[in-house]
């Protein structure tokens, strides 16, 4: 029986890891932290930000609204405030579709 790889989930991500994930500067992440209430990373004794998986999901939502859908910051805040559960559900669907797309791309390359 072949070895099945498990997804390794971290409890906290550093600022460097988050900037790599989203391909942005740390200043943009810090700016979004100040602007959006749903983004609340923990800080260690040194003051370094530690992002939970929930923070990463919230960042995905923010980047989707601002970068993909073209919302202004004010519009994105209002949309999140008025329709938080719907926005989170849409983000879950987007994530699952992106996983499926990656799987299909890998499958087509192997053929």
Give the topology, please:
Blueprint lengths: L12 E2 H8 L3 H10 L6 E2 L5 E3 L1 H16 L4 H10 L1 H27 L1
Whole-number average pLDDT? 85
How do the strands line up in the largest sheet? 1-3-2
Number of helices: 5
**Beta-strand proportion:** 5-15%
Low-pLDDT runs of 5+ residues are none
Helical content (DSSP H or I, runs of 4+): 55-70%
Shape: globular
In terms of structural class, how would the helical and strand content be classed?
mainly alpha
Largest sheet: 3 strands, antiparallel
Distance between the termini: 23 Å
* Strand and helix order: EHHEEHHH
Radius of gyration: 16 Å
Describe the structure in your own words.
By secondary structure, the protein is mainly α. It is built from five helices and three strands, in the order E-H-H-E-E-H-H-H. A three-stranded antiparallel β-sheet has the order 1-3-2. The radius of gyration is 16 Å and the shape is globular.
């Amino acid at each position: 029986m072949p070895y099945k790889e498990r997804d390794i989930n971290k409890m906290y991500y550093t600022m460097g890891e988050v900037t790599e994930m989203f391909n942005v500067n740390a200043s943009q992440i810090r700016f979004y932290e100040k602007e959006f209430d749903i983004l609340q990373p923990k800080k260690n004794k040194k003051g370094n930000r530690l992002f939970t998986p929930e923070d990463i999901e919230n960042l995905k939502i923010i980047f989707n609204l601002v970068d993909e859908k073209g919302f202004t910051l004010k519009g994105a805040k209002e949309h999140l405030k008025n329709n938080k559960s719907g926005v989170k559900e849409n983000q879950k669907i987007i994530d699952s579709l992106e996983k499926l797309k990656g799987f299909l791309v890998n499958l087509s390359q192997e053929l």
